[in-house]
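Student: I would love a firmer grasp of how sequence relates to backbone shape in proteins. Thank you; the sequence and its tokens follow:
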Amino acid sequence: MSEAPIDSALKFDPSRAGEYDRQSRIALAGYDACHELTACMLSSTLGSGAPAQILVAGVGTGQEILSIAPFEPLWHFTAVDPAAPMMEVAKTRLAEANLTERTTLHLGYVEDLPEDARFDAATLIGVLHHLPGDAAKKKILSSLASRLKPGGAFVLAGNCFSYQSHPRLLKAWRQRWIMQGASAEAADAKLAKILAGADPPHSEEAIAELLDEAGFEPPTRFFASLFWGAWLTRKVQ
């Protein structure tokens, strides 16, 4: 979950990598459900039981692969991430799940992959809101589109909406941290860190426009939780 420019990737240091899975499940109510539904959406789109090559951009701690792989045993995963601490966690978790032989790990960026590489599907989960500005967002989406086969499936998930534009959701997000045991002061600090370090697309319409410019079909949303959304689309034939 950390495919990002160098300055953004540096946020995912060993300390953050070590606590990422626990913190993500607090920050995103429905974290596991989102990943499970991603597996369902991809399987229903590609067809269950057939071999497929899946590109996982910003693999983070490997949760996408851990969720999808047991569901589709013939799929192979190429996992890309520029943050070495996150990749080390993913490597360990994938080895523990006996998924090493089904996964190729690349420390770096999507554009570092061979230009002729082509995948049946790709995921970008929890990444886009870490990329500052539309240019960086367009770049990674275009890089992913260029490495998908025509009609290839793509799952995009992450925060959308300007945080300040939805104060009620922001207050509910703060209460989510308190519900999970954080003090009011700690919850305020969490939100302040999020507000200072993320730049989500400002609407679902903005998501659709970014995808359209990158060469994808109009997306279908299949999951939502406060600021978070998940969409399935396909590369234009």
Notes: The beta strands are 52-57, 75-81, 103-107, 119-125, 148-159, 220-225, 228-234.
